[in-house]
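Per reviewer request, we include the raw input and output of the structure prediction for the construct analysed in the revised manuscript.
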Amino acid sequence: MNYKKSVYLIGLLMKAGKVASGEFATEKVVKHGLAHFIVIAKDASDNTKKKFRNMCAYYRVPFRCFFSKDELGRAIGKEYRSCLAVLEENLARTLEKQLNEQLEK
């Protein structure tokens, strides 16, 4: 059930304009200090995963590898995406909590 809640929350954030999606946009908001949480697709390339792990560590932005590229894209109503950034702090914490609960199961 939490999986559906997470997808719904990502879609809600997108409609509210609180998501930056795609590698370029995500990198830009992280470097400008606007990102509060990053979701990286599990099937993203190793280079992409490493790039965002290092960037998130440097800028101290929490992240999780979750969803496939296709699932991530469908959640925001677009084509496949390898990563996205959440720009709203409270909902970013909520999404992070939901994804952590999913990983613990």
